[in-house]
Amino acid sequence: MVDDRVLELRHRGWLLDGSFLLYDLETDSLWVQATGKAVLGPLKGRRLERLPVTHTTWGEWRRLQPDTAVLAKPLARVERYRRDRFEEYYRTHEIQFGLSVCLDGGQKLYPLAELEKTPLVQEHIGGVPALIVFHPPSVTAQAWDRRFEGAVLDFDLVETSPGDVILRDRRNGTRWSGMTGRGLDSGPSLGWKLPSLLSSQFAIPNWKRHYPEGTVYTAPGR
């Protein structure tokens, strides 16, 4: 949406610095998928509003969001969707991914290989107190704003189960779900959900091409 106008986007079939290029039917402007920015056409320089994206397994997603509706595949084209057309490309190029957190005040990439070593990261990104949580069984990374009731919470890792990462905040001693950001214990945090930060999975080789000012997380000890 731009200026209260909903745009209908289509895939152009081109790449720019490893990112798909899209075009809108309304103005034929070209948009970079990695940044949401128009690079050519009447809307050049404008950005689409970013939404947080979770990349996880279907089983983990169904556990977290059991009421999810899925867009059905056209019956006549089911065979086209039985395999990932980029599977061979990913295997031969050995592309590594990370969780990108893109805020107005700063951008940071958290390589999944680094999060394997430190599945709980607490720091500031562009002045925002961030909580990065990694769930190894499903290779899922989440980013939360760790402010609650006017205070910045600090967390300890309690346990990692097949379906969640359980945290405990040092201020109240209460438990939180690292996968949903929700408070689990009775008290003021019960049912409360930490705000999601704008994040998505990002190919590491393309990070600096699209976010030259962005930084990259390295686990302590290196």
What this model shows, in words?
It is a single chain. This protein has 2 domains: 49 residues, no CATH class; 154 residues, Rieske [2Fe-2S] iron-sulphur domain (Rieske Iron-sulfur Protein, 3-layer Sandwich), CATH 2.102.10. The protein is 11% helix and 36% strand. It has a 4-stranded antiparallel sheet, with no helix packed on it. Strands 15-5-6-16 form a 4-stranded mixed sheet. Strands 7-8-9 form a 3-stranded antiparallel sheet. Strand 10 and strand 11 form a beta hairpin. The radius of gyration is 19 Å and the shape is globular.
Index terms:
222 residues; Rieske Iron-sulfur Protein; four-stranded mixed beta sheet
Count of runs of 4 or more consecutive helical residues? 4
In sequence order, what are the helices and strands, one letter per element?
EEEEHHEEHEEEEEEEEEHE
Shape: globular
- Briefly, what CATH class of the largest domain? Mainly Beta
Helix content: 10-25%
Give average pLDDT, whole number: 91
The structural class is mainly beta
Question: What is the CATH superfamily of the largest domain?
Answer: Rieske [2Fe-2S] iron-sulphur domain
Question: Any idea what the CATH architecture of the largest domain is?
Answer: 3-layer Sandwich
Q: Briefly note the CATH topology name of the largest domain.
A: Rieske Iron-sulfur Protein
Strand order of the largest sheet: 1-2-3-4
Rg from C-alpha positions?
Answer: 19 Å
